[in-house]
Specification:
This protein has eight helices and nine strands. The chain is of the alpha/beta class. The chain has a domain of about 140 residues: Rossmann fold (3-Layer(aba) Sandwich), CATH 3.40.50.300. The chain has a five-stranded parallel β-sheet with strand order 2-7-1-8-9, sandwiched between helices. The protein is globular, with a radius of gyration of 17 Å.
Length: about 210
């Protein structure tokens, strides 16, 4: 029986999602779904690794053909997750990771109800701000906007299936692997991370209020 799952992973900017996923991929055979975009390729990026770079005309045809699980427009450029490679790998029995924004996660759920939505939380809004400042890539005004967006995303995490706290990267990796293995096995090991669990709800509330 094919028990492969599609895991949608979301987190606020600066939460360490990329580091967690890199470590997860080192431990488990998974397929990472590469998104399409209409923006120009940047120095150091590679086609098919960072994104599939397509023209606006190509992207809009894919929208018309309903080829995306989710898509959005940011700064006048399109970004979207193509369906075909996701379903091809699921059919082969390989779990799939889709890294998207929260609204994209909800779009995926509408199109594929079996998707498992996992949100990664920072320890607190204050800690998230510290990480963004230390990253040194954004100006103060941009950091302010990212924090405002993060607050909104965290409030949306109640609607996800599972929530992982990234207070310690290695523990967050193990927690995410536990969720993935539990979901695939159909057991209850992941319940403590579920948004149906009271402790998880309290954790979300704590992160929101601990600004």
């Amino acid at each position: 029986m094919n028990s492969a799952k599609l895991f949608v992973i979301s987190a606020p900017s600066g939460c360490g999602k990329g580091t967690i996923l890199e470590k997860v991929f080192a431990k488990k055979e998974l397929f990472f779904s590469v998104s399409c975009t209409t923006r120009e390729i940047r120095p150091g990026e590679k086609e098919g690794v960072n994104y599939h770079y397509v023209t606006r005309k190509q992207f809009e045809k894919m929208i018309d053909d309903r080829d995306f699980l989710e898509f959005a427009r940011y700064s006048d450029e399109y970004y979207g997750s193509p369906k075909a490679p996701v379903f091809e790998h699921l059919a082969r029995g390989t779990d799939v990771i889709l890294e998207v924004e929260v609204e994209g996660g909800f779009q995926v759920r509408e199109k594929f109800s079996e998707a498992v939505l996992v949100f990664i939380l920072p320890p607190s809004m204050k800690e998230l701000e510290r990480r963004l400042v230390n990253r040194g890539t954004d100006k103060p005004e941009a950091i302010k906007k990212r924090l405002k967006r993060a607050g909104s995303e965290i409030r949306s995490s109640y609607r996800y299936d599972y929530v992982i706290l990234n207070d310690d990267v290695d523990k967050a990796v193990e927690d995410l692997l536990t969720v993935m293995e539990s979901v695939r096995a159909g057991d209850d090991r992941a319940f403590r991370f579920s948004t149906k669990c009271d402790d998880t709800i309290k954790l979300i509330e704590k992160v929101i209020t601990n600004a």
